[in-house]
Amino acid sequence: MAVTTGFGQGVDALRDGIWSGEPAFVPVTRFDTSRYRVGVAAQADAGLDLDTELLALTEEACKQAGLSQSERADAPLVMARHADPAVSRLPREEQESKPISETARWLSDELGLGGAGRTYINACVAASTAIAEAAALISSGRNDRVVVAAGHLVDAESFTTFNAGKALAPDGRLRPFSSGRKGLLLGDGAGAVVLEAADSRTGMRPLAHVSGWGMAGDAHHVCQPHPQGLGMARAITRALDRAGLAPGDLDYVNAHGTGTPFNDSAETAALHRALGEHAESIPVSSTKSMHGHALQAAGLVEFVICLLALELGSAPINSGYLGPDPDCRLDLVLDSPREMAARHVLSLNAAFGGANSALVVSAA
Question: Using only C-alpha atoms, what is the Rg of the chain?
Answer without folding.
Answer: 19
